[in-house]
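We emphasize that the prediction below concerns an isolated chain of 332 residues; any contacts that depend on oligomerization or on bound cofactors are therefore not represented. The input was used exactly as deposited, without trimming of termini.
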Amino acid sequence: MRIAVADFGATLQAFEVPDAAGIATDIVLGHDTLDKYVAADACFGANVGGYGNRIRASRAMIDSKASHLDRNEGLHHLHGGRVGFDRKPWRGAACETGDALVFHRVSPDGDMGYPGRLDAWVTYRLTAAGALEIEMTARTDQPTHCNLVQHSYFNLAGGGDITGYIARFDADFYTPVDDDLPNTGEIRSVAGTPFDFRQPNLIGRDLLAASPRPDKGPSSGLGYDHNLVLGARKADGLRDCATLMNPSNGLGLALRTTDPGCQFFSGGDLSGTIKGKGQCPSVPFGGLTLEAQIFPQAPECDHFPSATHSPGQTYRHVMIFQMFHNRAVPPS
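Result of the prediction step, given as a token string:
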């Protein structure tokens, strides 16, 4: 296994894993050069923040005070704004142990509308057990909202589309979205819906039925772009999140996380006009995201898990991507 991480956005630029036949496969979408990352808006591999995902009307309440965040998706706030953490340089270094890279950046008070200085760190570590561990931590000097999200697009074959992959999510509920794509504030059961992946299912099975607005075409929310509500933490502090398998090359991954939700995005908005590594076009459904997170719209929904982060606290978000081959039993 090998990873490459760029200082720009603390971006996971490459993640090479041997498939079941031992062939090295780069399983994340991205670009070959820095200028392509700067010019693109797909967040390939980046760590997004201060708040990953959407906040309706770009308004977030903290201690009865409204923070007016940067509007970068119509009236709404997405992934930290126009110049969020994914658009900023981080300071990176290799750990002395040789198995990890750590990145740090400072977000000043008022950056994209967020109150308080936020010091953020992200650590990427490869383990002898065949996993990639990502740990995100942060500290602030004022009450603020913090939801750091890793935004890699996965393609377990290194190319083609992902509709033939088999996915399972440990999620009994999901949070619906409206035609504008922000969450409505509801929590609904997945039973009898296209979001029921409690048993392994083909991603392409109910792709169109899951679309928030399929009549408006691929650039307007075709396929999955929804937050799934994960089960309770286990004794080790992690939640089971997702298992993803590619039947064509026998490669799979299982994700566990500390966070309560996961944005499953099936890549319907990807366009052939976006040229990825080796100048290959990023076709619709050419990659999917597994964005472990606090729920979208949480700053305005008291019944959602809190995203408020206060001085004296340490924000911590862990994701563990355990790789396996289909001939093996997927990790439980």
